[in-house]
Design brief:
- The radius of gyration is 22 Å and the shape is globular.
- The protein has a four-stranded mixed beta sheet, with helices on one face. A four-stranded mixed beta sheet has the order 2-14-16-15, with helices on one face.
- Helix 1 packs parallel to helix 2 (about 55-70) and helix 1 packs parallel to helix 3 (about 110-120).
- With about 450 residues, it is an alpha+beta fold.
- It has helices at about 30-45, 55-70, 110-120, 135-145, 180-190, 205-215, 250-260, 275-285, 325-335, 350-360, 390-400, 415-420, 425-430, and strands at about 15, 20-25, 50, 70-75, 85, 120-125, 150-155, 155-160, 170, 195-200, 220, 225-230, 240-245, 265-270, 290, 295-300, 310-315, 340-345, 365, 370-375, 385, 410, 435.
- It has 13 helices and 23 strands.
- About 30% of the residues lie in helices and about 20% in strands.
- The longest helix is centred in the middle third of the chain and has 14 residues, at about 180-190.
């Protein structure tokens, strides 16, 4: 008989080194994939069922925002991970969505849906993790390519539908922005217009949206240079059922935690190819790892550190290392021999969040620039009081705390829950020494 492991729910948790992690856990649905799928469902203005929806707070906030804007979202009785998105009635005032929309970055995904229902979208400037300037300029260029009018002020921005652009809407992104790519795809869906998008982002999260549209009859071709989308002549009236893929970042973080402790564990529910860049990094360090069709297996007890330098360079290029893999890899690599280089030019403020926290734990890390750092391992950290200043900094500090001497207390765990419903609880299920800290 299995025993249910209680979730860790405190705003501060304590982590101590212990035995190697072992066992099996299943990751939740991906927050990064769920957010654009929810927005796509809303943009269609028809009922859509979403399965494997994670209970992370950012996803719940987006669903709440849909409710404020007139959509109905319901759960089947006893199934909190299934959401039915139903179009409702226009209820927003001209002031648009309020302060709650500024608490997450993904509020910008709702622009096409709001245009579909209201002809305009009024939103505050997006929030989310404070990891550097992540402007909206590329999003605005997308909407202007569709003939929309964009206005900005201190409160936020307004996108108003303009005269429809005849024929195919064509534009080229200056860099492979995931948000701008999804904005272009969903705006084309709302406009019923063919799209030709140069230099698209082809991350699994974007391809997830492309795949569900293909299943609805859209003609989609996603190439490294160009993404094209052609609407169907007609769409079935059946309620489409979409499944949010397993969280590759949660799987990668758990893999780093298992590897850091020299454990062996099976992480289920993740599409193997989605974690291939992380698996390559683990192999380079000497951690035997197998990526199966829907699972990731870490054979940490057979680890033989290679001493080879790891170059963990976050990139938007197809098949490259997702920036959200970089922080937990950094937390792991501190304990492995070699001189390692880490770079995240995509989120220029992330290192300024993470590196000082690791230095507080005794890490010796050289910041080469605001986006690059270098260090030589192995290093043995010492437990200290640290903070999850953003989602990925928090997960990296948990990885580091599993092998640090003494106790690591991690504050602002609410930041981690924005992206993961219960990452500490999954580590607890694998045998990590994690507990709540009572104020």
């Amino acid at each position: 008989m299995s025993t249910r492991v209680p979730a860790v729910t405190a705003q501060v948790i304590a982590i101590r080194p212990g035995r190697p992690l072992a066992g099996a856990v299943t990751v939740d649905g991906s927050k990064n994939a769920a957010l654009p799928l929810v927005a796509a469902a809303a943009a269609l203005l028809r009922p859509v069922r979403l399965d494997n929806v994670p209970a992370s707070s950012d996803v719940q906030t987006l669903l709440d925002l849909l409710g404020q804007a007139g959509w109905n979202t319901t759960h089947p009785a006893g199934d909190s991970h299934t959401v039915l998105v139903l179009p409702g009635e226009a209820t927003l005032t001209p002031d648009g969505l309020g302060e709650a929309a500024s608490s997450i970055r993904a509020s910008y995904y709702l622009v096409p849906a709001l245009i579909a229902l209201y002809g305009r979208a009024r939103l505050p400037w997006p929030g989310g993790c404070r990891i550097g300037d992540r402007g909206m300029e590329q999003h605005f260029k997308v909407y202007e390519a569709f003939g929309d009018r964009v206005r900005v002020d201190d409160r936020g921005y307004v996108v108003e539908a303009g005269k429809s652009v005849p024929g195919t809407v064509s534009l080229v992104l200056p860099f492979r922005s995931r948000g701008a790519t999804i904005a272009a795809v969903l705006r084309a869906v709302v406009a019923g217009t063919p799209l030709r998008l140069g230099q698209p982002n082809l991350s699994p999260e974007v391809l997830g949206v492309v795949n569900v549209l293909t299943a609805l009859g859209y003609e989609c071709r996603a190439g490294e240079r160009v993404l094209t989308l052609v609407p169907p002549d007609s769409v079935s009236e059946d309620v489409p059922v979409w499944k949010v893929p397993g969280d590759k970042i949660e799987a990668g973080t758990l893999a780093c935690a298992v590897a850091a402790t020299g454990g062996t564990a099976r992480i289920e529910g993740v599409h193997g190819p989605d974690v291939a860049p992380l698996v390559s990094a683990l192999h380079r360090m000497g951690v035997p790892t197998t990526d199966e069709a829907e699972a990731l297996v870490i054979h940490g007890r057979n680890t033989q550190p290679t001493g080879r330098p790891l170059r963990a360079m976050a990139t938007l290029a197809p098949g490259g290392l997702d920036a959200d893999f970089e922080p937990p890899l950094l937390g792991l690599a501190l304990g492995f021999p070699g001189t390692h280089l880490f770079s995240d030019p995509i989120n220029p403020g992330r290192h300024s969040n993470l590196v000082p926290q690791l230095v507080r734990m005794g890490g010796e890390i050289t910041e080469l620039s605001s986006t690059e750092c270098r260090f030589t391992g192995p290093q043995r950290l010492t437990g200290a009081g640290v903070e999850a200043t953003d989602i990925r900094t928090g997960s990296a500090l948990m990885v580091a705390g599993l092998t640090a001497r003494g106790v690591t207390t991690l504050g602002r765990v609410d930041q981690i829950r924005r992206g993961h419903a219960d990452l500490p609880g999954k580590l607890l299920a694998l045998g990590a020494d994690i507990c709540e800290v009572t104020p």
